[in-house]
Amino acid sequence: MPSNSDPNLEAFIEAMSKIEKFESQDIVTNWRHRGFHIWPIVKYVIVKQMIFAMNRNFAPSDRFKRYQNFSKRLRLNRNLLGSYKKQPVCSVSVDALPIELSQNHDYWCFGSGSGFYNLNEEKVSQHHHALRVALMEKGHLTLGLYSGFDPETLPAQSDYGPNASLDSFIKSVTKTARVPKLTQSFLRKHFESLETVIALTGHQEAEICAYADVIVGRLDYTISCFSKLFQTTQPKAIFTSNFASFYGWALAHVSKQYGIRYVDIQHGLEGRFNGSYYFGGTPKQDWSVLPTAHLCWSESDVETFTHQHPERRAAVVGPTWDQFAKFMPKLIESTGKALSAHQDRARPLVLFAGQQVDDILVAKQLNDAGLNILFRSHPLRKEETELLVDSSELEALGCELAFETPLPTLLEEVDGVVTGYSAVILEACLKGVSVLATGSYASLLEQDYAREINGLLTVRSRLEGDGMISEILAWSHAIDCKKPHYAQSTSSYADALSAVDVAL
Fold it and tell me: What are the helix (H) ranges across 109-190?
């Protein structure tokens, strides 16, 4: 148990122990719908909502109410349920899939548009660029498939292979897929701690179960689409940096059926309590909807991924930002000089890695109180965040500089990092940088990443207002000198792909 008592965290840990006990039962590991496992999807939904709710004191939310109404509109007629088990939920069409998928590309990369950056006047994926370059050097082009990206701004062709947007396909699935009704009845029948656990999500039981049903229905439809596609064309391997999505889970299932290697590229914190990788029980042939291989940031991530799964393969390549930064020498040089001009070396320089929109207001208070600070907003919240302060304050906080500077360069320059709960916690600790985290969940990282954190993480959860400002200032005054980088052995992408059994 973490040293600073936090009732929210204690409630979360207790709920997770109940979930682990529940998922160790055969009835759960054998729970399938039309051939694919359901529990990893339902667990992901529940655990992610518990983590979000924990940071708002488990306050009620009506965010999923619309899914309850939505699922009612798409629900199959009760009289059709018998035939539903034998027949496709609806007429399956692959027409909405990007046409590039049918053009016999050996390697596919799935990801999100939020991880794109301008590199030499070309938009490239932070999560995939180093991998795609490594494959190109071996003579292989890759097909990049991205969601949340305007097709007009996504380069259709690159030196590493073509790109395509998934958004039309995702929109088609959300409109077409039917919704089965299965989650609530199963959990009520078999999960004796259901009421206690669901209460910690902040959602009504019917609403969160309806949301899980919607995801399962979309996954089912997507499996049918890719099954049809794979009858005529198949890649040698599929890489993904956001497998926890209905199309990501679907691809995992279909890939196993066709013997295609499905490789997850780590893009955030994982660990035992993440909800996506660690399970108290596992089917004999592993969960059908999870990846079979993993390119990891750290040794601890390898251990989490391969726990109880002897057939899985994993290799340490380090954080994707470190790999990506190798292609940005000019930007690193120019931003490094700008950082030197911005900072006052008489005081510790602290990076505030914002997660929520109003984090910038906390950073402003810290700056006004005399802390030498850089503020870096979350990529998905940058525009909304910057509306909260005027231009002079944005400049004083170095917002644009911090956002444009490659993260590894920032971490080499700063003396400490402040964040709520962010992947930068692990990235900073790997570089020997002290971190103060204000989110309750961060305490669990001291268990999940004990070797990598090595005493560099301080957690001060449940802080508000002047109390938070005082704690951060006191911590900043006590920052020790940086420790050496954490010594871990990392593989090149070429070696890592061999280690996870990807044929080149």
Answer: 129-137, 167-176, 183-190
Place of tokens 């490659």: 406
CA–CA dist 344, 333 (Å, integer): 19
Dist. CA 455–CA 165, nearest whole Å = 43
User: How does pLDDT run across 297-313, given as a tens digit for each residue?
Assistant: 999 999 999 988 888 99
91 band by pLDDT with thresholds 50, 70 and 90: low
Cα R_g (the chain), whole angstroms = 23
Q: Which runs of consecutive H residues, i.e. helices, occur in 75-128?
A: 81-84
**Structure-block tokens of residue 494:** 């070429």
Task: Supply the pTM of this predicted model.
Answer: 0.90
Find out whether 480 and 436 touch, Cβ atoms under 8 Å.
no
Given the structure tokens 């924990």, which residue do they identify?
Answer: 54
Distance (Å, rounded) from C-alpha 475 to C-alpha 218?
A: 47
Q: Where are the alpha helices (H) located in 55-148, listed in sequence order?
A: 65-74, 81-84, 129-137
The pLDDT tens digits of the residues spanning 208-237 come to 999 999 999 999 999 999 999 999 899 999
Contact 72, 209 (CB under 8 A): no
Please spell the DSSP secondary structure of 311-361, one letter per residue. Answer: T-EEEE---HHHHHHTT-HHHHHHHHHHHHHH--TTS-EEEEE--STTHHH
